[in-house]
Q: What sequence folds into this?
């Protein structure tokens, strides 16, 4: 006996459907395997909730049918009452004997007879009073349909009612299938059961026991499509089902894994025109279960595809970049890491990863945990008995007994798997070559791409409004062919940048950051955080006001403010740098004169860019005098100045007028 | 001696049973429902109509109707004789001449302390009368869900609509005709606490239009200036590490060209998939749609595109034509505003981006909301959606080897007579 027992083996063992040899083997395994024993108990509990029990007291079929007829006026009351009394007396005799279970059964029988007598009594007297519509769940209002209450009664564990239900169910089956046919074509208005015109054969009532259904065979193929922007995985399974011609019920159950029942879908892959998936039923008071009703014109094996959403699988991208010593190029590797916290092991699954932002209305995990698949119009009392944390080994897919040390099968081919990438709609699909086996709670890392000699630019930025008085280091490149990239977009993730510290190849950690999704051909700017070796220090050297305007009340209604700034940049790195300095103003009415060119970034900001060389070794300890761009001599410090005039009050108008005049 | 004692005991038990049963005289077996109709055309309430055959005697008959454990709107309960209804006055003579019988509902009474009512019905003869009892029942309803599978180039979808019947009414319906406000009726049984999903509508190759929309009132203008994410493990950077996604929708028109158009499409959750060209599909996204009347559009938002980037900035924002009162206080002015929007398409296929721009109204909330404005110059055509909203349809070609396809929108406009 290899590994753990499958559900099928446990069910066959329980219902004694195995051969002696198999039975012995299973029994031996159960003795030594606590998890399989636990699983067997769980199945027993499920079947006991579904299955019908047989009672001890037997009311004859003839008696019951007479009661039914009598309630519809078919049998005379006196005959019936005599029969009932005789039956009651026999039960009273049973009661007198020293047998506890017989006593209980006898009391129940007597109560039953009393109820039947009551019905008979009221029917005679009730000719002046019409029958009452009773919608109470606890009362069998339709004597022909006690089986409809079976699950509710069984849950309450009332032996007497179970008994009644059991007999009536058999009786119902004997009366005929008319009651189970949903088609109303054969029903005449005012007809009684005995007068019903046989209608077309309709679908059978869903059997209570899973063993009566089409047995769900093992998965032939499974495909996982995992999304990184949400806790969502689309699972696609292929299975060969054996159908019979006519009606088939297919039950799909799951345990300890979060499946969204509203996403369940079943499609035949062949003979689709001869197979009709009629409906999907979520039975009352049963969870983690769905039943499909299938009408088939063919019999035999048919391949089907079952799809659903599950939760607990995830993936993320991360990157490692290594800068060259001169920081002009970078070697980059991209990885994907897939994690499985779904509660289920996935063996030999084709694994696909989706890059993109999907819009979801509900979390899949929340939909999976809902008490009712499509919710309920009533306020729900949380079912405390339902234990999501039960650690029962999953069914036939449990691999823990067969997995290797690392939690996954050894790959037969000893080479790294490729990841194929393609665009679909607004998403990118990464398909991992071959299949993957990822056990529950395990993760896997795969290389998604690598690129060498990516030309990069190091840029430093200074913007007080965004980063205070820190200078921030950026590394920029583009996701295009020129930079040896550009094949596909780069998914968002985290990136860690290292630099080569020396010729021996030792590395130095530069910094890390998150990276957004980078479309093809877009520039990438990686923010590596504050730069310790490059500083920018602005200093206001002068402040004046001018051009005051007074209103008719001699109040100030306009003026200019003139500020002179000096910005000193210090580069103590051994490499030249490029720095971008952004200055903001609190008004859109400003003019600026500067020592160096600038760009009007927007209505309230101006931006300067300049290059600083690395300090020459001989001058590294001296202070450089002044700023001398283009002199060819390296400087560790550079400074430039600018004067900005901001206009207040009515002076704003004056500025606009002067600009208009300039245009003219 | 024991046998005699046993018999006495049994008889005593039977007497006790019948004594208890006398207290509730109305507990009798009912005639079977002959037919039941569940009408789900109103999302707020479900109408149940059931027919039963009552055995009426000549004279006055009392029919007791009670319920427990189900939510029936008591005021909605009605009983109508079907076989021998009481005809209206103008038809009475004719009915009597024709020998038609008469069953009349006389009154309705409510017994105290019970969820019940009693009908007094008069009958001019003995009849096995078919009556229709109707009432509004709560907690049995329907949901509609959609599943659409798009082809790989996203030109059409195979659309399926599912009806989800939910029954939490407390009542089992063994077999009933279920009616919606459109489509054919169907036979269905459904138990209490049961949910059933069935295919209701199928339409193949329904044309779709894919729509990208940048609404300047809803989305950030400059991705570079986005604040840093709140989570501690996120990047230290700000907008340079965050995308602004452009919402993407599928648009379906409910008309005959789309192989629909026969009736309004009910609102519900829609899940969209796409054929990936490898005998499989990927999930594109989901959205909830409202009621879509015939001729109207259904727009399903599936997610965001990060391959189209819009960077919008206000380049000029000045006051001009300032008017003052005799205290030199500014009372009215015009504005001179320039907005530029740089649009980059990094996709390898063309797209049409809808850009929605808003010209704000008066700054003070106490004054009228809308503002006056005029466009001095705009380099692209637009459509006025309302007094303050402009819509641009910008065709973006696919990216090239040189880089993304870029278009720039520039709007130069003035807002007039703005009050400070």
A:
């Amino acid at each position: 006996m290899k590994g753990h027992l499958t559900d099928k083996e446990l069910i066959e063992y329980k219902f004694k459907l195995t051969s002696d040899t198999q039975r012995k083997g299973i029994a031996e395994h159960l003795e030594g395997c606590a998890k399989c024993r636990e699983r067997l108990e769980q199945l027993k509990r499920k079947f006991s909730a579904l299955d019908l029990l047989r009672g001890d007291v037997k009311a004859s079929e003839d008696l019951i049918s007479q009661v039914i007829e009598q309630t519809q006026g078919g049998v005379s009351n006196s005959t019936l009452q005599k029969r009932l009394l005789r039956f009651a007396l026999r039960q009273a005799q049973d009661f007198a004997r020293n047998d506890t279970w017989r006593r209980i059964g006898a009391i129940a029988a007597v109560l039953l007879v009393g109820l039947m007598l009551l019905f008979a009594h009221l029917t005679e007297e009730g000719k002046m009073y019409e029958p009452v519509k009773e919608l109470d769940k606890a009362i069998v209002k339709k004597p022909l349909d006690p089986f409809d209450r079976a699950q509710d009664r069984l849950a309450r564990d009332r032996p007497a009612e179970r008994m009644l239900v059991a007999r009536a169910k058999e009786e119902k089956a004997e009366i005929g299938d008319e009651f189970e046919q949903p088609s109303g074509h054969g029903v005449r208005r005012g007809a009684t059961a005995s007068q019903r015109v046989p209608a077309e054969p309709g679908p059978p009532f869903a059997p209570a026991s899973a063993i009566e259904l089409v047995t769900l065979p093992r998965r032939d193929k499974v495909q996982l499509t995992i999304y990184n922007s949400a806790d969502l995985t689309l699972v696609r399974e292929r299975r060969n089902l054996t159908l019979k011609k006519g009606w088939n019920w297919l039950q799909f159950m799951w345990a300890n894994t979060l499946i969204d029942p509203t996403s369940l879908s079943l499609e035949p892959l062949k003979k689709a025109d001869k197979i009709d998936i009629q409906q999907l039923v979520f039975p009352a008071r049963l969870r983690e279960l769905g039943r499909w009703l299938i009408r088939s014109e063919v019999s035999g094996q048919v391949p089907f595809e079952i799809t659903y959403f599950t939760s607990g699988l995830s993936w993320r991208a991360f990157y490692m970049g290594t800068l060259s010593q001169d920081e002009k190029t970078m070697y980059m590797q991209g990885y994907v890491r897939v994690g499985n916290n779904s509660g289920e092991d996935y063996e030999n699954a084709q694994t696909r990863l989706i890059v993109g932002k999907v819009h979801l209305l509900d979390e899949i995990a929340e939909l999976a945990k809902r008490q009712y698949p499509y919710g309920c119009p009533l306020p729900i009392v949380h079912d405390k008995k339902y234990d999501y944390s039960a650690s029962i080994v999953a069914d036939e897919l449990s691999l823990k007994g067969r997995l290797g040390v690392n939690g996954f099968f050894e790959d037969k081919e000893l080479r790294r798997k490729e990841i194929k990438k393609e665009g679909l709609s607004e998403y990118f699909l990464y398909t991992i070559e071959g299949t993957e086996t990822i056990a529950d709670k395990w993760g896997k890392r795969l290389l998604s791409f690598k690129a060498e000699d990516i030309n990069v630019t190091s840029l430093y930025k200074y913007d007080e409004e965004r980063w205070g008085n820190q200078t921030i280091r950026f590394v920029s490149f583009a996701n295009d062919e020129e930079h040896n990239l550009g094949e596909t977009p780069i998914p968002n993730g985290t990136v860690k940048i290292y630099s080569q510290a020396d010729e021996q190849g030792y590395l130095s950690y530069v910094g890390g950051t998150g990276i957004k999704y980078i479309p093809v051909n877009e520039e990438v700017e990686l923010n590596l955080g504050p730069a310790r070796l490059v500083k920018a220090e602005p200093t206001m050297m002068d402040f004046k006001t001018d051009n005051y305007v007074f209103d008719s009340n001699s109040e100030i209604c306009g003026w200019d403010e003139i500020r002179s700034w000096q910005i000193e940049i210090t580069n103590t790195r051994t490499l030249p740098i490029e720095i971008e300095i952004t200055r903001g103003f609190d008004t859109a009415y400003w003019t600026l004169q500067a020592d160096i060119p600038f760009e009007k970034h927007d209505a309230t900001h101006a931006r300067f860019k300049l290059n600083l060389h690395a300090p020459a070794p001989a001058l590294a300890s001296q202070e450089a005098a002044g700023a001398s761009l283009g002199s060819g001599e390296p400087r560790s410090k550079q400074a430039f100045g600018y004067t900005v005039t901001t206009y207040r009050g009515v002076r704003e108008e004056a500025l606009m007028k002067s600009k208009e005049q300039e245009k003219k | 001696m024991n046998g005699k004692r046993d018999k006495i005991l049994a008889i005593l038990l039977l007497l006790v049973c019948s004594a208890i049963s006398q207290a509730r005289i109305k507990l009798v077996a009912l005639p079977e429902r002959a037919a039941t109709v569940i009408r789900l055309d109103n999302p707020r309430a479900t109408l149940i109509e059931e027919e039963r055959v009552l055995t009426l005697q000549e004279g006055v008959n009392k029919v007791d109707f009670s319920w427990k454990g189900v939510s029936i709107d008591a005021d909605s309960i009605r009983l109508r004789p079907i076989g021998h209804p009481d005809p209206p006055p103008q038809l009475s003579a004719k009915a009597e001449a024709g020998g038609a019988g008469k069953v009349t509902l006389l009154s309705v009474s409510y017994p105290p302390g019970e969820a019940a009512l009693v009908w007094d019905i008069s009958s001019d003869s003995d009849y096995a009368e078919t009556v229709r009892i109707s009432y509004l029942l709560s907690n049995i309803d329907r949901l509609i869900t959609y599943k659409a599978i798009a082809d790989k180039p996203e030109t059409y979808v195979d659309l399926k609509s599912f009806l989800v019947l939910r029954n939490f009414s407390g009542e089992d319906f063994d077999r009933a005709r279920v009616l919606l406000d459109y489509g054919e009726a169907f036979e269905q049984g459904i138990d209490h606490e049961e949910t059933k999903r069935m295919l209701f509508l199928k339409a193949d190759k329904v044309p779709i239009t894919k729509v990208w929309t940048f609404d300047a009132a809803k989305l950030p203008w400059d991705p570079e200036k986005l604040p840093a994410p709140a989570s501690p493990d996120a990047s230290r950077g700000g907008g340079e590490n965050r995308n602004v996604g452009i919402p993407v929708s599928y648009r379906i028109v409910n008309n005959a060209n789309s192989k629909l158009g026969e009736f309004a499409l009910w609102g519900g959750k829609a899940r969209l998939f796409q054929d990936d060209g490898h005998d499989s599909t990927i999930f594109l996204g989901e959205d909830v749609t409202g009621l879509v009347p015939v001729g109207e559009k259904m727009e399903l938002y599936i997610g965001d595109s990060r391959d189209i980037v819009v960077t919008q900035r206000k380049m000029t924002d000045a006051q001009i034509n300032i008017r003052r009162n005799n205290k030199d206080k500014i009372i009215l002015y015009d504005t001179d505003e320039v907005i530029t929007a740089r649009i980059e398409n990094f996709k390898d296929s063309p797209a049409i981006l809808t850009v929605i721009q808003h010209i704000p109204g008066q700054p003070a909330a106490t004054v009228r909301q809308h503002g006056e404005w005029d466009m001095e110059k705009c380099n692209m055509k637009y459509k006025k959606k309302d007094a303050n909203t402009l819509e641009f349809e910008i065709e973006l070609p696919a990216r090239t080897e040189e880089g993304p396809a870029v278009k720039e929108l520039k709007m130069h406009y003035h807002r007039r007579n703005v009050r400070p």
Remarks:
- The CA atoms of residues 40 and 46 of chain B lie 5 Å apart.
- The first helix of chain B runs from residue 2 to 22.
- Chain B touches chain A through 128 residues (CB under 8 Å).
- The two ends of chain B are 110 Å apart (CA to CA).
